[in-house]
Each structure stands twice: as structure tokens, then as C-alpha cells.
């Protein structure tokens, strides 16, 4: 580790000229070396000596022209590091091959999304606080229409080409392609939108219109493409067209397509059946598992906590099932069901003990509300006699359900010589990478919502911009993994990605005035900040 000393002024003479070098010194392999940070010219020897004394800490009156003054302090470290990383990754060239002004504006918004999140207007107003916009070629005030919205429109027009470039770098023939869908809700009015519609909200946020977001990642979780669908889109309906898009637009013909539970339905699988080079990996829904039990393709006894049991579907010999059981999930599901059964019992008993008799229609309505609320109707047998409710649980159905707690089935049409049952399960579990992407996009760091744009094209562009920001964040996290791996535990834990950004933000760029001479000085990184920069592989 290089330990730099304080800044000092070294006076140099060359023939009749005299000038000063602003330097810091450090020792490397027993030898003293110097780094030059700036050069001061146009001053007399006496003036330079005054400055030299100031660097050494000699007292100069604060109202003297020679006094040291620091102004125009701006955040520098996080913006400069992420911008350098983005350019090293080729993200700038992927946006557009030539370095035009709008491309620089896009890079400012991508980096700004990681560092500051918030709206485009808020980011444009950060120009007084950060050097980001200056690093992207925008000195002074930033106009949100010119530098954000206009650039956003250009970015959307380039989405297809950008995704093709990213897919060419990160998707490989015959390797896993991870695909999943989420929803994001809106607040406010979006009249005339074809995207913002009511639909099934995957976050349980009722009463709000929404959009559906589909994300494509490689097997390591690196995002390569995103598409925004109307809010009422069904998951499975997007699968055939997404597979076609990957094969045609990205040029990847051999795909191991991994989709979330229930996404690869029988209907969607039939639409892509027979495509050469395509294999599907997914998981069965609870209803599909019950259907296999009823067909006696599988039995509850085959689910084992210690090993994966493989079964071939007798009606389709290409279809393989990998049966698994997770004991932690089993305990959680059993406890959840028991809690809901208790609540159902309390609600139904309240109807039973009502003082007034009622009509069968009114009692049935009340029972329906209870069963709908707790989703336990399949375990309840009830009837109304003489204006009174009579009910009981079905113990056989509860016992049958208990046997399936913690059980899940991975299904695939991949040949055994290509992937073992254990590899199929591991491949499906990689969908957690896409879930991590959605969590970062929606809540943790990048704050995809609230969406302040009102037109469908701007909404699409905003989502794409957030995914590009996650692409940058993903790569930075990969490089910082040694930092996270060697972190402490409990109260000794120090590092999160957010904390890394804050430490880099503490590196500032400031204007220094000394004896009438002005120059910019960047804060010397502290050891932990330098370690972050070294891991990311950038120099400020």
C-alpha cells in the first residue's frame, strides 16, 4: 500500500524561468517517489516562496491575497469511478458508436441512477453538488429537457441495438437464459396509456394500475434485455414471443430457457415445441403437482430431503421431473396453513354463535367472505340448516396437503446426458439472480418507481435506463465481492453496496485558490476508499 505524504510545493528553475510543482511523495520499495498534481507558473520567486510556506503550514493572514482558500466543493469519487467503469465495460460504445453529446447525457443518467436515484429533474439539479455532469461534458446548469428527456428518447430508439450488443457479450450458445416477470404499480392518472392497466399485482399492491416488466439475464444474473408489457399481461403468454426474440434479435439459437414456476405452461410449451436447439426448464405449480399425484406419475413418498428423485412422464417421455423437498419450507408452510386454519375456524365459529337466525343466502355470503379471506375453502365442509351454520374441517384433505409441504418439482425436456437431475434443480434455482435484479430495481438502490413520466415511450425508456444502471451496478458488485466476502458479521459488518457508494462520494473535487492562483484538487483517498477503487479497477 502506498502511503502518500501531504501536498508540498517544489520550486523549480529553468534558465530565467521559475515555476512551482504541487507534489505529494511516497515510498515504494525503499525509494522515494513523487506524484505531480499541478503546476504553478507566472509568479515571482518570492510569491512562490510564500506559497511554499503556506503549504508547510506557515501562518498567513486570512485576509491576505496569498491566503489559502477552498471553494466549489463537489462530489467526485463515486461519479468518476462508476463513469470510468461504464466506459471500460463498453457501455458507452454500446449506447452509440460515436461519442456524441446525447450519449454523454445518457451516461450521466445511468451513473446518476446508481449514485443518486430519484427523478431526472432531481438529477439535473444536482449539478451544483456533483462533478458528474461536468465529467460528461456539461459545464454549468443542466437543462432537464435537453440533457435528460431528449437523451432518453434517443436511448429508447437504440434499445434493440444496445440489447443485441449486451447479448453478444453475455449470452452464449447452449447456455442458460434466465427469464422472469414482475409488476410495478403507478400512482396518479395515466389516461390514454396502453401500458398502465389493472392486473394481477405480484407485490400484492391492490387498487393501483400497473405495468409488467420482463427481464432476461444470463446464467450469472447479468441483465441483457428488458421489455415492458401492459399491466394485465399474463406471465405465460409472454414466453413464446420472448423465446423468438432471443433467437431472432439476439441471434442465440441454442437456448436452455429457465422460466419461473407456472410460466412455462402446457399451452406455451406447445407453441415452441419442436424448435431446434430449445430446451425448457421450469417448476410445477401446486395444482400441477396434484395432477401428477392423481395420475399416479408420482407419490408423496418419492419426495426426499436428502436426495433428488427423477421421474419420467409416461405420457411424454421427453419430460423429466426432479422431485425435491425443503424441510425449512415445509415447516414454514405447515405453520402458515395452521395459522390460516385457526383464523378460518374463529371466523366460522363467530357465524355459528350468532344470536339471530338468518337466511341461507346471508349466512352463505358471510361464509364466502371468510373462506375468500383466508383461502382455506378446500378444507371446509359446511351447510346451513334451520337458519344455522354447520361446518367442519376435512381432515383427509388437510393430511394430504401436509404431505406436500416443502415439496417442489422441477420439470424439463433437457436430455439426461446434457444435464443431470441435480443440475436441473441448480439451474432453476439460478432464477434467484433475476429476483435480486428486481429487488434492486424496485426497492433497494435504483428506485424504478415512482415513475414520473406520463407517456408510454418515456415509461419504456425509463425502465430501460434503470436496467442499464443495474447492469453497471451488477458488474461493480462482481468486482467488489472480495470486499463483501471478507466483511465482518453482526455489529462488525461494515460493507454494503450503498455504503461503498457513500465512501466514494466522500472523495471530493475542490477549487483551491492560493496567492491568486486557482487549481482543482481531488481529495486523497483514504485506505478503505483506495481499496474500493483498486477492486473496481479505476484510477481517479
Annotate the secondary structure layout.
Elements: E1 8-14, E2 17-28, E3 31-40, H1 45-56, E4 69-75, H2 77-88, H3 91-95, H4 101-115, H5 120-124, H6 132-135, H7 144-157, H8 159-170, E5 175-185, E6 210-218, E7 223-230, H9 239-248, E8 255-259, H10 266-272, E9 278-283, H11 286-294, E10 309-313, E11 316-325, H12 327-352, H13 360-374, E12 380-385, E13 388-393, H14 395-403, E14 407-412, H15 421-429, H16 432-444, H17 456-485, H18 497-505, E15 508-514, E16 517-522, H19 527-536
Parallel strand pairs: 5-8, 8-9
Antiparallel strand pairs: 1-2, 2-3, 4-15, 5-6, 6-7, 9-14, 10-11, 11-14, 12-13, 15-16
Helix pairs in contact: 2-4, 2-18, 4-7, 4-17, 7-17, 12-13
Can you describe what's shown?
The chain has 3 domains: 1-67, no CATH class; 73-260 and 431-513 and 521-540, no CATH class; 328-403. Helix 2 (77-88) crosses helix 4, helix 4 (101-115) crosses helix 17 and helix 7 crosses helix 17 (456-485). The model has no long low-confidence stretch (mean pLDDT 91). The radius of gyration is 31 Å and the shape is elongated. It is of the alpha+beta class. The chain is 42% helix and 22% strand. The protein contains 19 helices and 16 strands.
Amino acid at each position: 500500500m502506498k502511503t502518500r505524504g501531504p501536498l508540498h510545493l517544489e520550486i523549480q528553475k529553468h534558465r530565467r524561468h521559475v515555476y512551482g510543482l504541487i507534489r505529494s511523495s511516497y515510498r515504494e520499495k525503499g525509494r522515494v517517489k513523487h506524484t505531480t498534481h499541478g503546476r504553478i507558473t507566472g509568479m515571482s520567486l518570492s510569491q512562490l516562496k510564500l506559497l511554499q510556506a503556506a503549504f508547510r503550514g506557515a501562518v498567513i493572514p486570512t485576509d491576505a491575497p496569498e491566503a489559502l482558500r477552498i471553494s466549489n466543493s463537489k462530489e467526485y469519487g463515486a461519479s468518476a469511478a462508476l463513469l470510468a467503469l461504464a466506459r471500460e465495460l463498453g457501455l458507452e460504445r454500446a449506447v452509440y458508436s460515436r461519442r456524441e453529446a446525447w450519449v454523454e447525457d445518457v451516461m450521466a443518467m445511468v451513473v446518476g441512477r446508481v449514485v443518486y436515484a430519484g427523478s431526472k429533474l432531481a438529477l439535473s439539479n444536482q449539478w451544483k453538488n456533483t462533478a458528474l455532469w461536468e465529467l460528461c461534458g456539461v459545464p454549468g446548469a443542466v437543462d432537464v429537457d435537453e440533457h435528460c428527456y431528449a437523451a432518453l428518447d434517443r436511448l429508447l430508439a437504440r434499445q434493440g441495438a444496445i440489447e443485441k450488443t449486451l447479448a453478444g457479450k453475455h449470452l452464449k450458445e447452449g447456455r442458460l437464459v434466465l427469464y422472469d416477470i414482475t409488476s410495478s404499480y403507478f400512482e396518479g392518472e395515466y389516461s390514454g396509456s396502453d401500458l398502465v392497466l389493472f392486473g394481477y399485482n405480484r407485490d400484492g399492491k391492490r387498487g393501483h394500475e400497473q405495468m409488467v416488466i420482463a427481464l432476461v439475464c444470463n446464467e450469472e444474473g447479468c441483465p441483457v434485455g428488458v421489455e415492458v408489457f401492459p399491466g394485465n399481461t399474463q406471465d405465460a403468454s409472454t414466453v413464446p414471443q420472448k423465446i423468438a426474440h432471443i433467437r431472432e434479435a439476439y441471434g442465440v439459437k441454442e437456448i436452455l430457457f429457465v422460466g419461473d414456476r407456472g410460466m412455462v405452461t402446457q399451452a406455451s410449451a406447445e407453441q415452441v415445441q419442436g424448435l431446434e436447439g430449445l430446451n425448457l426448464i421450469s417448476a410445477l405449480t401446486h395444482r400441477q403437482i396434484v395432477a401428477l399425484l392423481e395420475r399416479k406419475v408420482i407419490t408423496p413418498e418419492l419426495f426426499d430431503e436428502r436426495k433428488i428423485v427423477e421421474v419420467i412422464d409416461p405420457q411424454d417421455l421427453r419430460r423429466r421431473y426432479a422431485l425435491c423437498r425443503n424441510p425449512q419450507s415445509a415447516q414454514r408452510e405447515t405453520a402458515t396453513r395452521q395459522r390460516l386454519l385457526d383464523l378460518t375456524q374463529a371466523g366460522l365459529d363467530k357465524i355459528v354463535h350468532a344470536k339471530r337466525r338468518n337466511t341461507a343466502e346471508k349466512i352463505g355470503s358471510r361464509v364466502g367472505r371468510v373462506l375468500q379471506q383466508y383461502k382455506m375453502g378446500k378444507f371446509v365442509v359446511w351447510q346451513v340448516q334451520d337458519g344455522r351454520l354447520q361446518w367442519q374441517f376435512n381432515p383427509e384433505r388437510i393430511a394430504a396437503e401436509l404431505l406436500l409441504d416443502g415439496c417442489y418439482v422441477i420439470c424439463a425436456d433437457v436430455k439426461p446426458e446434457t444435464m443431470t437431475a441435480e443440475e436441473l434443480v441448480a439451474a432453476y434455482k439460478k432464477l434467484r439472480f433475476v429476483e435480486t435484479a428486481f429487488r434492486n430495481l424496485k426497492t433497494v438502490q435504483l428506485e424504478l418507481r415512482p415513475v414520473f413520466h406520463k407517456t408510454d415511450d418515456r415509461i419504456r425508456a425509463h425502465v430501460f435506463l434503470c436496467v442499464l444502471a443495474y447492469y453497471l451496478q451488477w458488474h461493480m458488485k462482481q468486482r467488489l465481492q472480495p470486499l463483501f466476502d471478507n466483511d465482518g458479521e453482526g455489529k462488525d459488518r461494515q460493507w454494503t453496496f450503498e455504503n461503498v457508494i457513500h465512501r466514494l462520494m466522500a472523495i471530493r473535487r475542490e477549487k483551491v485558490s492560493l496567492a491568486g492562483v486557482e487549481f482543482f484538487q481531488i481529495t486523497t483517498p483514504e485506505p478503505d476508499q483506495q481499496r474500493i477503487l483498486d477492486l473496481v479497477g479505476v484510477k481517479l
